[in-house]
Amino acid sequence: MRALLLFLARQEGFRNFALRFAFFRNAAARFVAGESLDDAIRAVRLANQQGMLGTLDFLGEDTIAPEDADTACVQVFHTLDRIREERVNCNISVKLTQLGLNLSSDLAFQNLRRIVMHARDTGNFVHVDMEGSRYTRSTLDLVSRAHEESGNVGAVIQAYLRRSEQDVVAMMAKRIRTRLVKGAYLEPDSIAFRKKRDTDANYAKLMKMLLAGETYNAVATHDEAMIQAAKGFVQSENIANNRFEFQMLYGIRRDLQFRLAREGYRVRVYIPYGQKWYPYFMRRMAERPANVAFIMRNLFRK
Known about the structure:
The chain has helices at about 1-10, 10-20, 20-30, 35-50, 65-85, 105-120, 135-150, 165-175, 195-210, 225-235, 255-260, 280-285, 290-300, and strands at about 55-60, 90-95, 125-130, 155-160, 180, 215-220, 245-250, 265-275. The chain is of the alpha/beta class. The protein folds into 2 domains: about 1-30 and about 280-300, no CATH class; about 30-275, Alpha-Beta Barrel (TIM Barrel). Strand 7 (about 245-250), helix 11 and strand 8 form a beta-alpha-beta unit. The longest helix has 21 residues, at about 65-85. Mean pLDDT is about 90; it is low at about 295-300.
């Protein structure tokens, strides 16, 4: 089921078919704040009122034209400006394929650099999302280059990749803020753990490395076992709650988000918005197959 959903995430024909059904779009609204920046700012403000932070992601990936990459940059600039104007507590997340990485690494870097510099000028921070494994090396290289010029940019490490321990060591050595996730793409056995228990074990190991480090890092998971492990580790090591944060996705485990915030932990909600929500939504379905049956029961209901 997971492989099928990730395959469909790349199929434009299925996207066009699914979007004919209002229920499909309504289901996506659970995971996406809306299609406009106004929608996104409202979602951030609500998270702030509930004691949580935000990170905004203007959805889009796999850009195939330089002008589209430039358009994405302009939208991110607008997002940074609105965050400052509205005085909401929020940073941003970007994907390098949206900024032109499939066209050239130089184009992607120049666009990333523009965004990072604008974020610095507006007093903000940029997290660069990780995509499929074909982009891992280039993404970390470009993040490292941008970090050398301006410290307000961070990386994402996927625990299901076998290479991730060496990447965590490299990010820690460079003092680059890191968000640790499990990973949401379909990868071959040769480069990724396929069994959940192996991914979980690697996640717990890398999480402890990052939490014990000197950089402010993020534990991004909805897995209560991993969250409990993180809480137990910071307590045993006397690590203050303000030295790290939990990160969770918009629309997933709101109860857990609220509980962690009430307990005094920093919680940041990843809030995506924009018209290009289909691939993101399908990856969320792949992560939570139990939702698929609910959608299919209602997709053809009149």
